[in-house]
Amino acid sequence: MKLSKDGGSIVGNKVTYKCDCLGISGGWTPMVHLFTQSGGKLKFRNNDNVFIPDENKTPSEQISVGSSNGDFELDDVINNTVKSIKIFLGLDKNMRDKYKDNPYFESCREFCEKYDQNSFDPDYDTLDLDFFIPMVKELFQKPKKSIYLQS
Fold this sequence. Notes:
Largest sheet: 2 strands, antiparallel
Strand order of the largest sheet: 1-2
């Protein structure tokens, strides 16, 4: 297919390619051309002036992730991609809730919220590994109990 000389219509035969997965990279500006060509509709997001797929007007059997979905920060890309894939595959995005009654659920949730996510944040303020070396050396300097120590 190609565009007519006046740019007002498409001429030529339609070309169809069968594939299992199609990946695109959009850089800073979301690349939503394939989404719209498949029949999807866009909406404008005012806070950062980008067009993104309208989740209410998305053709079935497709998802948009990464910059084509308006996610530009790595944390957002990872978190929203995982959520989108779970929903797309029919997995429960609140799967952890089945453990709500476990006595350790709340402490685990709190730990993950406060500490686990921070371990993946390259900008999180942490102490250098050298800070911990004297503590580790002190801990292992003299064994408390050992089969090799004489009474």
